[in-house]
Fold this protein.
Amino acid sequence: MSSINTGIEWTDKTWNPTTGCDKVSPGCLHCYAEALTKRFPNNFKNGFDLTLYPERLTEPLKWRTPSRIFVNSMSDLFHEKVPLDFIQKVFKVIQATPHHIYQILTKRPERLVELAPHLEFHKNIWLGVSVENQSYVSRVDLLRQVPVNVRFLSCEPLLGSLNLDLTDIHWVIVGGESGQKHRSMKIDWAKEIRAQCQKAEVAFFFKQIGGRTSKSGGKLLDGKIWDEMPEAWKEHQKEWGKSLRNLSVKKGILELIA
Ligand code: SF4
């Protein structure tokens, strides 16, 4: 599974130049990516071990419709086994395809901060960190250190009440866990985050309550769907619309990442 149209409501496509990972915090316990590698072993030659796929790097160059692309839904781009020069190639592809938005989510903001001086954060990169409970809010402080246009938080699976500093954060996604062994989310935890977002004027996206399946609890909060996106998304749509009239794919990109 390299790139697929996804059921994740806040993105359009996934792009997996790497797959595989190692667990780093409680949010990883029922890792969806790991479960997929077990369910479809023929698609993942190394199981859930970190694997690079250089041949997938050029995939977004072929996607002409402007899209929101979730980078590494099956991995973590800032995993310690992903070499800096590979990450730089990913960023060059991002630079060469300004008609797409790239959503990069990590649970390893320490390495993100360490590598940031060697990376160019183009306007079409949205960077996010996962925050599943209060013990991991320091990831938000690390994210703030990176000079990127849009910063977001994924509070999914939400495992506890959160008190967030939302300074310079543009978007928060909240969701409860799903699956046979799901850990239940209290609705009040989601409402508290929504209140913090409203106070700080940050876009709030509520994905699901969770339960035995992702649809079990529904996706309404106080009877309403919350699917706000960062302001930058409207600006991007205005700039690119559905056409590629402004597109000029940088020449030489294939040589750059070869
Ligand atoms: S960081 Fe993400 S991909 Fe890696 S084990 Fe945790 S949940 Fe899975």
About this structure: The mean pLDDT is 92.
